[in-house]
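User: tokens in, sequence out, please.
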């Protein structure tokens, strides 16, 4: 399944965020103190410190998650679509919605990890809005694309180019 323009755009933005924070970390590496913030509580306050190499591990996890989601996106036939009924008539539309879900999740994940890394690099606490906004974006993204996939499986069967509208 060929990714749509939206997927290519979201993936490019996610890569740009991950590359940007990686370059920023590399550029500031020598100036970083040996101990940097590594964990924040629900209010955004720093509650654990770690070595600066932990920042590299944080970015490594972000890159690994991006790669894993990219590999998963290449094999839609293996996806667990839950209660969605995949038929020949709706397959392209449902898989397109789920691919959009993966692509937008990669971007949100890159933004969250990037922001966490940036706050740790700058030794700043997280803003109070970070946790609720992050949860709202992730859950809204999941719910929105799953609703779109559900609607694609049952309600758009009469049009052949509905997949292009996603």
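Assistant: Sequence out:
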């Amino acid at each position: 399944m060929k990714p749509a323009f939206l997927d290519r755009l979201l993936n490019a933005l996610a890569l740009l965020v991950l590359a940007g924070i990686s370059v920023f970390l590399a550029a500031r590496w020598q100036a970083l103190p040996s101990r940097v913030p590594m964990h924040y509580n629900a209010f955004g306050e720093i509650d654990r410190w770690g070595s600066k190499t932990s920042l590299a591990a944080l970015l490594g996890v972000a890159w690994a998650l991006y790669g894993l989601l990219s590999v998963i996106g290449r094999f839609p036939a293996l996806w667990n679509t839950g209660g969605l009924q995949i038929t020949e008539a709706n397959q392209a539309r449902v898989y397109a919605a789920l691919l959009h879900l993966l692509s937008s999740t990669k971007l949100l994940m890159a933004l969250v990890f990037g922001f966490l890394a940036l706050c740790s690099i700058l030794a700043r606490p997280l803003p109070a809005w970070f946790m609720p906004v992050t949860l709202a974006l992730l859950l809204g993204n999941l719910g929105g694309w799953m609703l779109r996939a559900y609607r694609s499986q049952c309600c758009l069967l009469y049009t052949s180019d509905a997949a292009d509208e996603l």
